[in-house]
């Protein structure tokens, strides 16, 4: 038996709820012709990336520190040089690194009457050379990477400044409540629903137990991070309302955060 085309179209309409006419062009066929060519598409607007405001989080300083270890000085010879700037200027010129010697370091070396002497015939990293300079300066000079520059200064000026960070430890100090399982080993009378320890056929609620007290957590941090430095001027640690208020250098704050994460 032959089925006519109109009959098939009628079946299509009944089964799908709609059926396009044979003469009508589907809407999707015109999309390709109306689409804008890629060459005419508007340029994407750059999206600004948020920066991490935490101290020590700037990627520029970390990249510069890595470059100090990577950049090599082929050879350097210094004989009886009293100027710290004269010692480091060739290194800055050879590597293009932003090495800055401040007046405090220059004057400290001149006042101490120090003379630098280096006879290096083999390549050495800039970081190792800076450490050699510090050792020859006998404690009058220090260097630090700060604000995308290598600052060579006196130890007190180069030392990182303590900052206050509030570490949330409420999840570590959170009290845990012990629940006893229902006891259905026997049939009980109404006056026997609760056992001496608080349990019963419907279970029981025990005492709220704290994993560690706030003061003990503070002591744990002091005994495992920057040991011996918490009594120094400007450094402190205090537990308050579920937070550890830590005043210390940025690097120590990172170590404190790492220890707390291990306890979670």
Topology of this protein?
Blueprint: H1 5-16, H2 31-34, H3 59-70, E1 72-73, E2 76-81, H4 84-95, E3 99-101, H5 103-112, E4 116-120, E5 124-125, H6 126-136, E6 142-146, E7 149-153, H7 155-158, E8 163-168, H8 170-173, E9 175-180, E10 204-210, H9 214-224, E11 236-240, E12 243-248, H10 250-263
Parallel strand pairs: 3-7
Antiparallel strand pairs: 1-5, 2-4, 6-7, 8-12, 9-10, 11-12
What can you tell me about this protein's structure?
Strand 6 and strand 7 (149-153) form a beta hairpin. With 264 residues, the chain is α+β, with helices and mostly antiparallel strands. It has helices at residues 5-16, 31-34, 59-70, 84-95, 103-112, 126-136, 155-158, 170-173, 214-224, 250-263; strands at residues 72-73, 76-81, 99-101, 116-120, 124-125, 142-146, 149-153, 163-168, 175-180, 204-210, 236-240, 243-248. Residues 1-58 have low confidence and may be disordered. The chain is elongated and about 100 Å long. It has a 3-stranded mixed sheet. The protein has 3 domains: 59-155, Phage tail protein beta-alpha-beta fold (3-Layer(bab) Sandwich), CATH 3.55.50; 160-174 and 211-264, 2-Layer Sandwich (Ribosomal Protein S8, Chain: A, domain 1); 180-208, no CATH class.
């Amino acid at each position: 038996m032959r089925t006519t085309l109109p009959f098939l179209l009628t079946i299509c309409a009944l089964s799908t709820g709609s059926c396009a006419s044979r003469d009508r062009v589907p809407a999707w066929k015109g999309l390709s012709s109306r689409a804008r060519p890629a060459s005419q598409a508007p340029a994407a607007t750059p999206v600004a990336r948020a920066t991490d405001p935490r101290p020590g989080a700037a990627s520029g300083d970390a990249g510069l520190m890595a470059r100090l270890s990577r950049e090599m000085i082929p050879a350097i010879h210094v004989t009886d040089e009293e100027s710290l700037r004269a010692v480091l200027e060739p290194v800055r010129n050879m590597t293009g690194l932003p090495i800055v010697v401040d007046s405090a370091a220059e004057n400290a070396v001149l006042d101490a009457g120090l003379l630098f002497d280096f006879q290096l015939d083999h390549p050495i990293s800039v970081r190792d050379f800076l450490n050699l300079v510090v050792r020859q300066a006998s404690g009058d000079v220090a260097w630090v990477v700060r604000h995308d520059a290598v600052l060579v200064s006196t130890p007190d000026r180069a030392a990182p400044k303590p900052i206050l960070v509030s570490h949330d430890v409420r999840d570590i100090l959170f009290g845990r409540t012990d629940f006893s399982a229902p006891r259905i080993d026997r049939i009980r009378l109404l006056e026997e629903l609760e056992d001496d320890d608080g349990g019963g056929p419907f279970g029981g609620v025990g005492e709220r137990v704290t994993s560690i007290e706030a003061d003990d957590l503070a002591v744990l941090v002091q005994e495992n991070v920057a040991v011996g430095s918490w009594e120094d001027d400007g450094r402190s640690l205090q537990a308050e309302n579920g937070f550890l208020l830590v005043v210390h250098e940025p690097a120590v704050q990172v170590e404190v955060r790492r220890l707390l994460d291990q306890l979670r």
